[in-house]
Amino acid sequence: MLEVKGLAVDYYTEEGIVHALQGVSLEVRPGETLSLVGESGSGKSTLALAVLGLLPRRARVSGSIIFRGQNLLSLSEEEMRKLRGDRITVVFQEPLTALNPVFTVGRFLKDVYLTHKGGSEREAEERALEMLRKVKVPAPEKVLNSYPHELSGGMRQRVLIAASLINEPDLVIMDEPTSALDVSVQAQIIRLIYELKEQVKASFIFITHNLGVAASVGDRIAVMYAGKVMEVASKGELFSNPLHPYTKGLLASVPRVSGGEVKPIPGTVPDLRNPPPGCRFHPRCPYRFEPCDKEVPELKEVEKGHWVACYLWR
Ligand code: ATP
Ligand code: SF4
Ligand code: MG
User: Fold this and answer.
1) Residue 6 has what pLDDT?
2) Would the CB of 209 count as within 6 Å of ligand 1?
3) 281 touches ligand 2 (CB under 6 Å)
4) Of 20, 58, 185, 251, whose CB has the highest number of CB atoms within 10 Å?
5) Cα(77)–Cα(69) distance, rounded to whole angstroms?
6) pTM for this model (two decimals)
7) Which atom of ligand 1 has the smallest separation from the CA of 45?
């Protein structure tokens, strides 16, 4: 469905060039959910924006993003606008900023539908209602006539999820869709996403900094660090057999309900204006050895379906 190859994104800022992504390669298969995890600043949203064609003007992008056989990076603004909201859709973290305060939920959903599918107001309204039912909004007829400020955060996020699915897309990108919600609402939305992804044909990229959330939604997990993909594996494999030192560090730093020691990864994420040479994780890696600070380790398949960018596994 989606194949990202050698993707690099640099942001040109007054303080210097931020090398936000470097040599990122990933694929998303038809019908699967790929969870993208990594610390803040690892480049998860940059990757999402690159796929959506929404990077700011000061970003320079290279590599390729093949979506259903077409390189998205070679499409015009106009061609991207046709795909976005229709074939590729997105749910962002903060539902209130994603919704227009002066439009009702019904108007918003109908416009998303009519812009891409055409048809009558009535058809659009029926589809909007159907979607509100699908995302389990209580009293959908009432919500259709409500304004965003009249809804709770969880309800607004349900509306945005409805909008992301209304045109039966091929790829849905969810960028931290539950991070702005409190824990119990977060759990309900995750449950909903899990159920929906089983019902619809679309592929999903689910972005989160939370490994537990990544595991509960994703079929496969890609771990990002400082603008690079460090490890990709099925979720079972990643949790039972993590190979990259960063993934191991992430797993050890997750607090558990059962107690036990939490071991944070020492050090901090690098400044991407001046990323470490070689393996970007080397300043924090307890296993670093001779080649690590000189050459960039490539992402390699070391076991079937298990990809790692680390010299330990060469
Ligand atoms: P978070 O978990 O905080 O959302 P993220 O993994 O989504 O983080 P990005 O937002 O993609 O990370 O940021 C990657 C890097 O690019 C960071 O160093 C960030 O400061 C930088 N960056 C992101 N957006 C811009 C921008 N518009 N201009 C300049 N630098 C940016
Ligand atoms: Fe650590 Fe070297 Fe592997 Fe990087 S390549 S994670 S520094 S062992
Ligand atoms: Mg982000």
Assistant:
1) 97
2) yes
3) yes
4) 20
5) 18
6) 0.95
7) 7
